[in-house]
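Sorry to interrupt, but I need a hand with the structure work. Please put the record directly below this note.
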Amino acid sequence: MADTQSRNKWNNIYQEKTPGTAEPCALLREFAHLLPTAGAALDVASGLGGNALWLARRGLDTTALDISDVAVQRINDYAHAQTLNLRGQTVDFTQEDVPPGAFDVIVVSHYLERRLAPQLRAALRPGGLLFYQTFVQETVDAQAPKNLQFRLTPNELLQLFNGLHVIYYREEGRVGDAAQGLRNVAQLIVQRRD
């Protein structure tokens, strides 16, 4: 079963890593000034919770979702020891849904499951922000996943979240001097305004 293979793969990876050492994604750090001072946050495909721990430390009531039960247990243990308002839950996003209307902030970093786009849109509360950063097909080196299914086509991220108010978008692809700039990823910040 594919979800079991994926869970086992990520369990093995996270068994060797330490929670609390991962940094939040660049997009979240750069635009931290847009975050609310209180509310509910969601870190999708959280791994060991670099984004989730950072959000919880900023005072947000944070949920971290990941397929790896090892990562989730390690996040929960770490958050408890640090007395952070963070809960990790094991979820297979290919089969489970995100609760609607529950979050003021959602972060997705280096993960792509296209069927989640409408759910993520619906999971935002009015005024809520979605920070999304993941790999594109037009890469300049081998740092992205080899499987193109896990990489965005040009402007696809904008299309997936059409209808939400765009605050920030960046996707440079292979244009210009590929040794400079932001390459291999697209970044998007959108807000639900209804």
